[in-house]
Specification:
Keywords: Calcium
Mean pLDDT: 89
Shape: globular
CATH topology of the largest domain: Recoverin, domain 1
Largest sheet: 2 strands, antiparallel
Order of helices and strands: HEHHEHHEHHEH
Number of strands: 4
GO molecular function: calcium ion binding
Organism: Lingula anatina (Brachiopod)
Structural class: mainly alpha
CATH architecture of the largest domain: Orthogonal Bundle
Protein name: Mitrocomin-like
Number of domains: 2
Number of helices: 8
Strand order of the largest sheet: 1-2
Pfam families: EF-hand_8
Amino acid sequence: MVESPKGNFSAHWIFKYKEFFNILDVDENGMVTEEEFIDSTTKRAQQILPSWRAMAVNGILSSAYDLWWLNKYTNYSKSITFQDWLRADEVELPITREDLVKFAKDWFDALDLDCDSKLMVDEYSNFLILFRNTGKVQDIFDAINWNKDGVIDTNEFIHAFMGYWADQEPSPSDVFLGTRY
């Protein structure tokens, strides 16, 4: 099981999580719907990725939606407010570290267009487009490319993915999904 802070989230983590919620809240009405989470993101994927990779993105999003969102802790709601989403994260969901690593690997594989086990800045920029990034792609890429070799390898991606979702204090992983400013 992934350890849950049982509502003892740091102010930084809540801020970061709220930014993610805002990325997904395309119409900015304070609620994220299944359509915004899955369909809108998939449409962005269809504009920048080969069709089978866009379908993989849809599968990843659908799995994440089913696991994290569509459960008894959210009353199986098709739309959710930030407060409701935060409350759902206060429980110990049946999500293992292995589940998170699998999600990270699935994302990596969907983005690795030339299948060389490395993400170049243009491949990583596709990921940022999916999450409506408005920040400087190269700066974000450089923050995730910890060994500074000009590529993001599988381990760096997984480490950043895990850090984004779990780190309670500021870290380079905070820009993993891009920024909205």
